[in-house]
Amino acid sequence: MDLGLKGKVAIVGGGSMGIGFGIASRLASEGTDLVIFARRIAKLEAAAAELTSKFGVRVIPVAADIRDQDESGRIVQTAIDHFGKLDILVNNDGAPPLGPIDSFDDVAWQKAVEQNLFSVIRMVRSALPHLRASGSGSVLNISAISAIQPIAGFGLSVATWAGLIGYAKTLSMELACDGINVNTICPGYIDTDRLQKVFAAGTESPESVRAKLVSEIPLGRIGSPADIANLVALLVSPAGSYITGCTIPVDGGLLRALR
């Protein structure tokens, strides 16, 4: 199925590995040119070279720490300088540290807010004039299932991503008149480095923790970055343009709530 993404330009956060690389790969497979950013340039350059070689699209790597308030403008300007436009913004980064919620001081909380909320606000602010100019822009945020079904030990993520969801819902209403859709995906247990940290965080063996998590998932397996990327590609494409303001779990049935 051709999703109509050939010739589009997308910015993808965390594009060197994990979910971000999965998203970048899926968009590249549809013919989308990319700016990918993360903190480590070596991994970014390797990812960009792989995507260009495999799919024949243009991929520009940008080393950036999204917690820095000046970085969003530089990332967006890179897309404009190289491609002359911007159609899609995928906000995706890592996640704050795990631990008891009362163990974090103001510095930790401020870093979490910068990473999970302010970074998105700034990226959208920088990208918005260009998304409006595209006539059919799209903003897609990656958070986590813990934002809508809290998990003990994930307090920094839960609190800040809940704020992101409120921001995104409001943004979707305000940008609808510009033909820009805004959605948030909440991945469940996805096979990434972040999940490996969860496996290793307690006193049980990683194998035991993995088996326990799998037993909680009705579909009976840990998800892959491709499970997230396939939905992203739909939502940011013309085929998904009528879908906006949604917070969507992609979790193999893990979420128990009626919503």
Automatic annotation (TrEMBL):
It comes from the Bacteria. It holds the Pfam family adh_short_C2. InterPro entries: NAD(P)-bd_dom_sf (IPR036291), SDR (IPR050259), SDR_fam (IPR002347). Belongs to the short-chain dehydrogenases/reductases (SDR) family. PANTHER family: 3-OXOACYL-(ACYL-CARRIER-PROTEIN) REDUCTASE (PTHR42879), NADPH-DEPENDENT REDUCTASE BACG (PTHR42879:SF6). This is 3-oxoacyl-[acyl-carrier protein] reductase. It comes from Jezberella montanilacus.
